[in-house]
Amino acid sequence: MSEYEDVILAIDEGTSGTRAAVVAQNSQVHCLEYQPLQVSSLRHGVVEQDADEVLQATIEVCRKAIANAQCNKMRIVALAIATQRSTAVLWDAQTGKALTPAMVWQDARFTDELAQLAPEWDAKLLPRIGRPVGIRSPYLWASHHLANTPAVAKAYQAGTLVFGTVDSWLLWHLAQEKKSVTTPTNATSAGAYCLKEHHYHLPWLQTLGFPASLLPELHDDADDFGTTHEDILGISVPILACAGDQFAGAIGLGCTERGQAFCMHGTGSFVDLMMGPTVPTLQKGCESTLTMTARRQKGLSHFSVETFVPTTGSALNWVCEKLHWFDSPEQISELAAQASDAGGVSFIPALTGLRVPHLQPHARASLNGISISTTRSQVAYAILEGIAHSVAACIRANEAATGIPTKELVVGGGLSNSDTLLQIQADLSGIPVRRMAETARASLRGVAFLAGADGLLWDSLPDACAMLKTARLFEPKISHDLREQKINRWAMRIALEMEAADSLTSANQEHTYS
Ligand SMILES: O=P(O)(O)OC[C@H](O)CO
Asked: Where is the Carbohydrate kinase FGGY C-terminal domain (predicted)?
C-alpha cells in the first residue's frame, strides 16, 4: 500500500477572495490557503475586478496548498474548480492578459439598455433560459467593448480575442489545452444558456451584438477539462470538475435532491430550492426568482430555483472597510450577540440595488431608525437582521414561484458561522436552519466531490455526501405573531426605499459606459 494519500486539489474562487485546499477521501479539507481579492466600484452600478489579480492570487493559493499537501504525504490526483458565476473577462490569446477590467456579476450598468429589450424578449427568454432579460449581461458588456475599446476590437480582428467567465479564464490558464470552456452552472448565470437543450440562445446573443464565434465551449460540470500546466502549478493532473460556486456549495452541503433548500452566504447570499431533473415552470409574476442548472453530469442536468441578495458579505465588508464602524464581520456577529434586538434600527442591504422582495436596480441600501440611545450592538444586530430578512424573503419568493414549502434551510459560506445570524434566520423564516460541519468549506468540498464521484475517490455523489455531518440545528424561537410583526415592519421599510428609488428617474442615475 502506498504511503501517500490520494486527494483532490479544489479551488473556490469567490468574488471577495480565492481559496485552494485539498479534499481527502474521508471528506476532510486540508492545507487551506486564502487570499482576499479587490473589487472596485467607481460609480453606482459599475462593479469591476482585475482578472489578472484573480488569476495570480488563485495560482498562489494553489501552489501553497500543493506544497503543503506534498509535505504531508498527500498525492494530488485531480483538480476541481469552483468560481464566482457570470463575472466576465476579455483577454488576448497571444499574451494571455486581460484586455479590460472584468465585469463583476454585481454590475448593473446596462439596466436601462436591457429594460428597453424586455417587452420583446422577456416572455421568449423566461421558458428557455430561466430568466427574463435582467439587469446585466456579460455578453452585452463584451459587445460594448468590441465597439468601443480599440484593444478589444484589434484582438477580435486579429482572431486572438477570447471571451469567458471566470471559470473559462482560470481553465484557459491552468490547463495545457488553451481552450475557452464553460459549464452549465456558470453559463446559466450569464443569461444565454438554454436549460433544457444545453446550448446557447443564439437569437438573443445576436440581438445583444455578441458574435457566436466568441462563445466558450459548453462542457458538463463534471467532465474532462484537460490537464494542468506543470509550468504553472508544478503538477500535471486531470481537471475533472468546474462549477459555479453556489452549486458546488450545494453539493458540499449535501443538497442534491428535489425539495432540499440551501443558502450559500458569500459576497451575496443565494437561496436555492432544488428541483430535480425536470425544468420547473414557475408561477407568473415571480420577477426576482430564476431557474438555474444546478449541476450537469454524464449529460443529465438537475435544476433549481434561485432568489438572491447581491450584497450581504460585501455589505459587511463595506461597513468595516469604508465606515470603520467594526473591525471585521466576525466582530459584527460578536457585538450583535450582546443585543436582544435591533432597538428599532433596520438595515436593507441593497448596495447594488434591490432584488428581493422586489426588483428595483435603482434602490439604495439604508440604515434607518437610529436614535440617541441606539447602541453599537443594536446596529450590529440590525445589520444581521437585515440580511436574515432578505434571505427569508428569498425563501418566500422561491415558495411562491414553485408552490413548494421550504421545510428546512441548510446554510453554507462564511456568514453561516454566525450563531446570531442563524438564530435570527430561523426566527424570521419560521423553519429550522441547519449548519453543516465546516460549513465555510462547502464549495471546496462540493466541487471535489463532483470531480471524484465517478470512482476516483468516491463511488457516487450520494456516497460522498453521506459523509457530511450537521454541526448545529437552529430552531425558530419566536411566536408566529411576533414574526409577522417583524416581517411587516421590514416590508414597510422596503416600501419606503422602493418609493425613493421610483422617484429617481434613470436620467438622474450616473450611468455611463467605460
Ligand atoms: O462571490 P460569491 O462567492 O458570493 O459568488 C458569486 C456568485 O456566484 C455570482 O453568481
From this structure: 262-452
